[in-house]
Amino acid sequence: MSCISHPLIRPDSLESREYQLSIAMKALDANTMVILPTGLGKTAVALLVAASRLYNEKGKVLMLAPTKPLVEQHLRYFEKYLLLKPDSGSISSPFVMFTGDAPPAERTADWERATVILATPQVIKNDLIAGRYTLADVTLMIVDECHRAVGNYAYVFLAQRYLSSANKPLLLAMTASPGGTVELRDDGPSRAGHDLAGDGCTRAVAPPADERGPAGGGCGRASAATNAGPGTTRRLSGTTCVDSSVSSGSYAVTRARTAK
Prior knowledge:
Elements: E1 4-5, H1 18-27, E2 32-35, H2 42-57, E3 60-64, H3 68-81, E4 95-98, H4 104-113, E5 116-119, H5 121-129, E6 138-143, H6 154-165, E7 171-175, H7 194-197, E8 202-205, E9 221-227, E10 233-239, E11 245-246, E12 253-255
Parallel strand pairs: 2-7, 2-8, 3-5, 3-6, 4-5, 6-7
Antiparallel strand pairs: 1-12, 8-9, 9-10, 11-12
């Protein structure tokens, strides 16, 4: 088994899967909606992108999920695999979970010190409206269950606020249930996530089951879509190989050689 090698990922802990690496690389280039069936590792893709953004751009990562159990699940995953140290002079964890249980003053202090914030969307929306903190230093916002991002749901407000106020914004939306066809058309994206990302969002979709290839070995096939501009969505499908080193900026994700 080969494992991901990255300065911010615990060594020999995260199995390298070609299609996850391919999707992560695309997600580092543009705002992206990832459509992957349950069990294929959306959270692993999010971790890869988060590690790269923190390594290259610093700042904070904000990961949103619609329920407290999901937030707790993501917190455990990120704490297990992501190597982050507290700020100098601090003994507090660089990870923090917001679900509205903590008083506002405590959330404000936690936001200032934390590097990775995992939260339900409504509490972040309420805090932003109240002016308790801003999204200026968030270099990656991850939106889980993004098919909920329609109408007045808090995801829509947060995506708009983030893209308009962050210094270095990058949006990663994820879903296993796009809520309709995932076919990409020349007249724009289909249904799910439209209110979240608009027409400027790359779509990355899972490769067929028989094209994923063995985990960590060979070359899996990946399907994705990139958007050349409003109303010009284009589908790309083909073999995407991620060799021993792939990069975005100075360093992104490297794959360890298969241990023998």
